[in-house]
Amino acid sequence: MKRLAVKNLLGRPGRTAALFFLVLLLSLTLCGGGLVLSSLRTGLGSLENRLGADVIVMPAKAALKTDLDTLFLQGTIGPYYMNMSTVDKIAKTEGISRLSTQIFLSSMRASCCSIPIQVIGFDPESDFTVSSWLKESRQGSLDEGRLLVGSRVNANPGESIKLYNISCPVAGQLQPTGTGLDTAVYCTLPTIRTLMTAAEDLGGYSSISGDPSETVSAVYIKVKEGVDPKDVADSINVHVRKVKAVQTRSVITTVADSLSGLERILTLLIIAAAVLVWLVLFAAFTLMTGERKKEFATLRLCGLSRGRLAGLVFREAAIVSLLGSAAGVGLSFLLVHAFSGALGNALGLPFLLPSAGTAATLALAALFGCLLAGPLAAAVSARKLSRADTGLILREG
Amino acid sequence: MEIIAKGISKRFFRKAGESNYFFAVKECDFSLPEAAVTILTGHSGSGKTTLLSMLAGLLAPDAGLVSADGRNLYGPDDRENSAFRGRHLAVVPQGRAVLDTLNVLDNCLLGLRLAGREAVDSIAKAEEWLDRFEILPLRSAMPRELSGGELRRVMLIRALMTEAEVLFADEPTADLDEENTEKVLEALQTAAHQQQKTILIVTHENEALKIADRVFRMNKGEIVPA
Ligand SMILES: Nc1ncnc2c1ncn2[C@@H]1O[C@H](COP(=O)(O)OP(=O)(O)O)[C@@H](O)[C@H]1O
Ligand SMILES: [Mg+2]
Prior knowledge:
The complex is a heterodimer of chains A (397) and B (226).
Chain A: H1 2-11, H2 13-50, E1 55-59, H3 60-65, H4 68-74, E2 82-83, H5 84-91, E3 96-106, E4 118-122, H6 131-137, E5 147-149, E6 160-163, E7 166-173, E8 184-188, H7 189-201, E9 215-216, E10 218-223, H8 229-239, E11 243-247, H9 248-291, H10 293-301, H11 306-338, H12 340-347, H13 356-385, H14 390-395
Helix pairs in contact in A: 1-11, 2-9, 2-11, 2-13, 9-13, 11-13
Chain B: E1 3-16, E2 19-32, E3 36-42, H1 48-55, E4 63-68, E5 71-72, H2 78-88, E6 89-92, H3 104-114, H4 122-132, H5 148-161, E7 166-170, H6 178-194, E8 198-202, E9 214-219, E10 222-225
Parallel strand pairs in B: 3-8, 3-9, 6-7, 7-8
Antiparallel strand pairs in B: 1-2, 1-4, 4-5, 9-10
Helix pairs in contact in B: 3-5, 4-5
The structure holds adenosine-5'-diphosphate (ADP) and magnesium ion.
Adenosine-5'-diphosphate (ADP) binds at residues 12, 14, 24, 42, 44-50 of chain B.
């Protein structure tokens, strides 16, 4: 029986290939679509996690020039700075539980730097936004002068990156977030201040006014429990000059809103495509069974019961469907993996491949969806067909 | 094994005079004794194939019973019926009934394999039959490469290989030359007389009458002794 199923498949290569590609298409739709959807979800989740802050304060000039959404997707706000004395004023605001500063610096496309890149300096002592993520991925200690690189930065631990003529050893690489943060490098405040000084010396950073050691780019604030972040942001905006405080929640909500809109459209598209392919597949298997009437009658003639006949057809369809859907699942992973960056950019949303568990669930669901279509259709119609008297089928032509 | 049919009939829907259907086989009793060749002749359309199908367990009669050694061929359990047919009844149908994805040898062994009764010497036996019917060179050929007469012999070998006690053959010599007709008839006679098989042959061939133990004619759905 097993050999007969395989022989039937190999004996009709055209038919087998056509069914294989139909199943592949179905599984590609289900698995690939599911992967894109869950990558967007995962991206949003990671964005929320990385944004441990309730309020972010940045120089007013930066707020004018930066689209707030892209701030979070890109992680930095460009070359705008404020003075440490401003930070002290911010710190006096009521309701703040934690406060941490960050400094952003862009390396240049010039001979002094090996790659153009965003450098993010943070204070490991007070930090609460990057550190947890760093801990997940940390491989080396972040001493003075050393860097951690984002997952999409092309440098391995042990190598060095040259920034403003300073060679910085790479201490480790971070887990991906699906956002612009993946293309940045991270270091401590003393390190980035050294880099800023070097940048100034090279004349590359005219916008840094004053002493680099007295400068920061942004302040991240976590409010005390029970305090509304909006009150804190408003208070800062009123009392501290030349800065702009924004709530991160509003940003997340914006991203989440555009995501859920997109999700709805994508889900509809996937369902429509899957239903279509499913119907075609069902029809194909049913038609094929009708076409094989004579063959089935021959098997019945030789003493095969209806049940065993259905089993044979089911087995054939299951082999094709398993191979087809496995290929479809593999192809979806390949495609989504290869184009994840491009997809994220095109959609303007954080895009991060889901965990292995979620991916496996998706793959299984796709396999199941495919197995539900073909083999079932085939077995049902084979059984129905074989209810007709064998004698009658055999005398037809 | 003895096949006994009691009061069986089969009608098909077709306008015939006043009624909406006509009887392809009118109500009749019929039996096939062991170790004998029974031959059924008659004009085309007289109901021979319909009768043979009912006796072979392939076409349920509208009325009446068919039994083999007392066992109803149309019992309620399809699995049991099929298993019984596969083991005890072998049929060479009138039309083409081979698997196109299997080669000649595999087709010859199909009945045996489906019944789970292939033995170590089965292939050798099949090759012996192929040689005897002069188609051994075709053992690895696919059915679409075969002529009607060659296919007919393949189906016959498939039936003989199962070693079923009852053999039904619907015009088994229809497209065979004289020499092969002789060989096929001889094989069927040997099966009846030396292996005590129950054999029913539907044929127009006068040659066949030579090996017949009993001969019947069908005429418009009625069985008449010839
Ligand atoms: N499925 C069917 N539907 C309608 N008429 C049928 C069917 N099968 C057979 N018949 C008719 O029954 C009669 C007997 O057919 P058959 O037994 O094949 O004749 P024979 O084998 O003697 O040539 C014929 O007139 C044929 O047209
Ligand atoms: Mg006939």
